[in-house]
Amino acid sequence: MLMLCSVAAIASMQSCKMKSADSAVAGDAAAKVYVAPGKYDEFYNFVSGGFSGQVSVYGLPSGRLLKVIPVFSVNPENGYGYSEETKAMLNTTNGAIPWDDQHHLELSQTNGQQDGRWIFANANNTPRVARIDLKSFRTAEILQIPNSAGNHSSPFITENTEYVVAGTRFSVPLGDADVPISSFKKNFRSTASFISVDKTTGHMNIAFQIVLPGMNLDLSHAGKGPSHDWFFFSCYNTEQAYTMLEVNASQKDKDFIVAVNWKKAEEYAKAGKGHKMPASYAHNTFDENTQKATSVIEKDVLVLDPKDCPDMVYMIPCPKSPHGADVDPTGQYIVGSGKLAALIPVFSFDKITKAIQDKQFEGDFYGIPVIKYEAALHGEVKKPGLGPLHTEFDGKGNAYTSMFLSSEVVKWRISDLQVVDRIPTYYSVGHLMIPGGDTKKPMGKYLVAYNKITKDRYLPTGPELCQSAQLYDISGDKMKLLLDFPTIGEPHYAQACPATLIKDQQVKFYDISKNHNEYVSMGEKKANVVRNGNRVDVYMTAIRSHLVPDNIEGVFVGDEVYFHVTNLEQDWDVPHGFAVKNSNAADLLIMPGETLTMKLDANKQGIYPFYCTDFCSALHQEMSGYLRVSAKGSNVPLRFGSGVVVADAAASNK
Ligand code: RUQ
Ligand code: CUA
Fold first, then answer.
1. 432, CA 20 to 30 Å: which among 171, 467, 473, 590?
2. Do 205 and 196 touch, CB atoms closer than 8 A?
3. What pTM was estimated for this model as a whole?
């Protein structure tokens, strides 16, 4: 099948080539990705889960899946979002939301280099930013973003993790005002939020929110080195369309890169140039000490208007509906990838600074000065390919841009903007990732392409084919394809760091003596069942290979039963699971030293077996018990126990 690349094909964003990969894999590819059984991968690769809402972790170069980290979606595998302890993580001002759409990731940095402490993740749909702790691979904090919709240009960070940004893909009226959609120009605004990150705890707070005209912010990246004080956002739909964007947002030849001087913004915020606006947004944190998430609703946000803050925001014209906004390792060059443009514009930070000094403007956009295109331009990469989306860097003076329409990676030199190599992707590549490829110190050994279309690459699996990533060797002059590997959810951005940066800081188990969960059972002797009205609290312990108590009676239809299960093990890699028949929550997976709680609504009479769901020992199948639920008002005393000792609740509660 041969299709011609037409404008229509470009506009509908379909890949127009099917290629054969037969000759594309070098003979030594297998050896280069082979990680022998029992050996470790060289890199951790964190990949966004797209519509799965989670983050998954792969080893590179093997492409082996190591873990799925639950972030914005409930996770039946371990009860995240179902257990009483973690439910609050998914709380928002619209109640608990069990799902989101996760696109971008950024590892925390110090001096523009990965420091291995946290990785940040965005939620697109209900705007939120999450912080994941890289000692436990657990979501530690989730912050909702007010005055936002489609939190896409997020969670990119400044060089020392001073701020995480969150920019709106969809403009909306501030404060959720009720206005006609047709009043877009008058009432809709985009916002760029700057979230401060506490240096030691990592705790996030919205420091200020910059209000921008109604348009769509898309991607962003922070400056570094000389451009340290700046943040660059791409935007499209400066036409300000609110219907049929496909046509109406593609009218202008150029949209903008929005350059924000966040240092100035910080000063303006300190000087009282902003105003506090009432806003309502959830701030959820998981406390390792109490092992419980709490959700606080924040009440206001500090808003900065460029009108009141001169020199804080500038617009740089960028052809045509730019997607990626990427900054090279020196911080000198800013690449805007116009997804409908036939070239890649590269802007020079020195030139931008000079243009601002010399006031080389071509008017303004709603009062924000627009720098002359030529005055900011370092140069254009000519005819790179079709549909440039994202650019990463190898630290050796080269840039690599993904070409969605022509399904290829194009390598070009930053100095003279010459294309030096190109290689096909299978197919329609979105993001690219080089370990450290958006930091000051890229490790230009591998490149991973995260593709949007898989077509014929894997065994077919019904109407939905697997999602796919491809690994390339970029250590030489010529890029080489090494490996395809499937991913979970649609992959967008990713980050990778050397395994040595984080592998030795892993939590192996939680010290039981520091377990301050209010429902902990410190040892089997503390196991208990307590009734309070129709609430029944079961204090249960788990250790190989039994649960205490494992017989519970005296529970009635209409009771709410809370199983607080403490895993007493103090060893690495010995979680116990917990599930009970008829429960409408997921099972729990309780790490050694941890307590987790499952709620059961006892709404039918019967015997409810419960058991450990993780095959933990040779006697795992024996790790089980029974709950008896009797008819309401029946005369069954509350009794519980294990082995021969079945104690009266009244006696043991003394
Ligand atoms: S996007 S494929 Cu949501 Cu980062 Cu560009
Ligand atoms: Cu504990 Cu199986």
1. 171
2. yes
3. 0.95
